[in-house]
Amino acid sequence: MTRFGDNRCPVCRTALWAPDSEMIGTKKCPRCGAELWVLVGSKGPVFFARPPGQTKCQFLAALGAAIHGTTPEEMEAVLKKADSLDIVEFVMELEDAAGSA
Ligand SMILES: [Zn+2]
Question: Looking at the chain, which terminus has fewer C-beta neighbours within 10 angstroms, N or C?
């Protein structure tokens, strides 16, 4: 997984900055026009390519499934019931997993 604090476009490697205040946001790369997800962890932001039509829940489910060893469908069902605090913890967990990889 891309490391947190690597604030570059995953497509063209242009340095980007994260939108303020949102832990999980979206951004369009100003250079190559790629649609991106932004996760902001304690070490800084990390950017992921955003396939057309992918929901925030599906995006997190895909990342979470990889570290939990479940399917994205199972992960998505869990995330749909999660509140905002659960999501914060979830992002921190992703950051830990990325940092130790
Ligand atoms: Zn780009």
Answer: C
CA of 31 to the centre of ligand 1 (A): 5
The two tokens of residue 8 are 């570059």
In a domain, 14, yes or no: no
Is 64 part of any domain? yes
Q: Could you tell me the distance, in angstroms and rounded to a whole number, from the CA of residue 70 to the centre of ligand 1?
A: 30
**16-21 long-range CB contacts below 8 Å, 24 or more apart?**
16/45, 16/47, 17/45, 18/44, 18/45
In a domain, 94, yes or no: yes
Tell me which residue range forms the domain holding 67.
Answer: 24-100
Q: In terms of pLDDT, which residue wins out, 59 or 3?
A: 59
Tens digit of pLDDT for each residue in 36-87? 999 988 888 899 999 999 999 999 999 999 888 999 999 999 999 999 899 9
Domain assignment present for 17: no
